[in-house]
């Protein structure tokens, strides 16, 4: 089947590339397509291959490593792909070097070190696999297969239940990815995506998940805004669009805070929100006091700790002092057991990458933030941003600041593979499967 056929027009970049690279229609390989779909399933499931050191490797990691020759050959077609891969490898080496340097005054766990390094490598290599899958599959198809893997992963972890624990434990992301990918293939895509987002936001509110409610609501606002009539034919700058998105997120935060404090999202959420505001002065600082510990540790040891390094008593004392500045009581067991009971866990992807991989980890985090913000803004500028990509971008921005790297990894892997922009002239900004059927004005010429 030709890459430029209806089946592949979900990503106009692929159609353009098929004609520009070879001058002849590209013929898809049945085996290649099977590997792509099976690999996406494996990556989404995050199935660990054993216990101990083996637990640091997932089935998806194995697939991504075995297919290195395949995805490595296409990275040059995507802006920033090789830089992302290089930064990831550099960070992994940096984490091991920092851990070795920390041995005189810290304990270094081999198992935790392997988990930290393989998690980073798995995300970067997995994202490269998704980039390769874009050669034949549309964004919606990728989302469906990856979403099925996420659902399988939830089932294996017994979190495939409509409970607060199940929703927050991974079902919200699985439902979001799969549901929005399916909606992206509907004849009336915009209507289908809005319906799915309303349902997901409603479930998040009912199941006491404030962050998911805000993320789905932000996505809904962007999708509705994209449906407005065109006033100017000239496309705007993605930078100004990013500024607008920042303003929109602040507005949603203020709206969400008002709804929570006034009890519109439930009595339990109201009580918790009021307590957090009274304690730290804002919902964000009250809900994520780990930011205080992260800031204190950064001032104490700006180079980071290293992969597998266990915080010593002095490190823990510094972190607790940072928590006290936010009026948080650190001697409640949470700090000693969760944050520093094993690996250093700062409840922030940015904090975790810095602690494990140092300045190189911060460089990876900064580049990821740039790719995601640019990808979100560009997709809105050209009105090709379907709900799947918009949701993943908003969710990743949240995770970079407020979620552990371990819980952020599944969605981050997928979004990195989707936001990398193809080098295809006039269509290099085309993101998220804009088809002639869905967007008549965007053609692959």
Description:
- The protein has one domain (12-427).
- With 445 residues, it is an all-alpha fold.
- The protein has helices spanning 12-22, 30-45, 59-66, 68-72, 81-101, 110-133, 139-156, 164-183, 189-206, 210-226, 238-261, 267-280, 283-287, 290-300, 313-324, 334-339, 349-381, 387-402, 405-419; strands spanning 107-108, 309-310.
Pick out its properties:
445 residues, 66% helix, two-stranded antiparallel sheet, 19 helices, single chain, mainly alpha, disordered N terminus, 2 strands
How would you summarize this macromolecular structure in one to three sentences?
The chain has 445 residues and is mostly helical.
The secondary structure category is mainly alpha
Distance between the termini: 18 Å
Q: Domains counted in the coordinates: how many?
A: 1
User: What is the helix tally?
Assistant: 19
The number of distinct β-strands equals 2
Low-confidence stretches: 1-27, 425-445
* Secondary-structure element string: HHHHHEHHHHHHHHHEHHHHH
General form: globular
- What is the CA-atom radius of gyration, in angstroms? 22 Å
Mind summarizing the main beta sheet?
2 strands, antiparallel
Strand content: under 5%
């Amino acid at each position: 089947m030709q890459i430029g056929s209806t089946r592949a027009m979900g990503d106009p970049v692929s159609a353009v590339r098929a004609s520009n690279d070879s001058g002849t229609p590209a013929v898809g390989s049945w085996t290649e397509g099977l590997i792509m779909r099976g690999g996406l399933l494996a990556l989404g499931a995050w199935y660990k291959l054993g216990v101990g050191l083996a637990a640091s490797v997932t089935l998806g990691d194995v697939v991504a490593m075995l297919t290195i020759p395949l995805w490595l050959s296409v990275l040059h077609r995507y802006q920033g792909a090789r830089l992302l891969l290089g930064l990831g490898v550099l960070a992994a080496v940096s984490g091991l070097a920092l851990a070795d340097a920390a041995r005189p005054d810290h304990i270094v766990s081999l198992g935790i070190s392997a988990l930290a390094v393989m998690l980073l490598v798995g995300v970067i290599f997995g994202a490269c696999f998704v980039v390769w899958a874009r050669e034949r599959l549309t964004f919606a198809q990728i989302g469906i297969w990856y979403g099925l893997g996420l659902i399988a992963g939830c089932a294996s972890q017994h979190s495939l239940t409509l409970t607060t624990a199940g929703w927050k434990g991974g079902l919200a992301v699985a439902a979001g990815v799969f549901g929005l990918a399916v909606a992206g293939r509907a004849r009336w895509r915009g209507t289908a995506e809005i319906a799915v987002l309303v349902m997901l936001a409603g479930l998040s509110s009912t199941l006491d998940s404030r962050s998911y409610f805000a993320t789905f609501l932000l996505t809904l606002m962007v999708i509705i805004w994209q449906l407005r009539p065109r006033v100017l034919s000239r496309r705007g700058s993605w930078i100004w669009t990013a500024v607008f998105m920042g303003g929109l997120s602040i507005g949603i935060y203020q709206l969400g805070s008002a709804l929570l404090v006034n009890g519109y999202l439930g009595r339990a959420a109201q009580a918790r929100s009021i307590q957090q505001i009274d304690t730290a002065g804002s919902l964000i600082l009250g809900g994520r006091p780990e930011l205080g510990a992260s800031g204190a540790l950064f001032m104490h040891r700006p180079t980071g700790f290293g992969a597998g390094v266990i915080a010593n008593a002095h490190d823990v004392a510094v972190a607790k002092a940072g928590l006290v500045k936010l009026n948080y009581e650190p001697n409640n067991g949470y700090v000693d057991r969760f944050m520093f009971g094993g690996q250093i866990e700062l409840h922030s992807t940015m904090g975790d990458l810095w602690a494990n991989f140092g300045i190189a980890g911060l460089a990876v985090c900064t580049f990821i933030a740039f790719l995601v913000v640019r990808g979100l803004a560009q997709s809105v500028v050209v009105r090709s941003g379907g709900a799947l990509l918009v949701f993943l971008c908003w969710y990743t921005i949240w995770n970079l600041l407020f979620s552990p790297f371990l819980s952020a990894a599944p969605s981050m892997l997928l979004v990195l593979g989707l936001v990398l922009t193809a080098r295809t002239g006039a269509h290099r900004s085309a993101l998220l499967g804009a088809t002639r059927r869905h967007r008549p004005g965007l053609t692959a010429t």
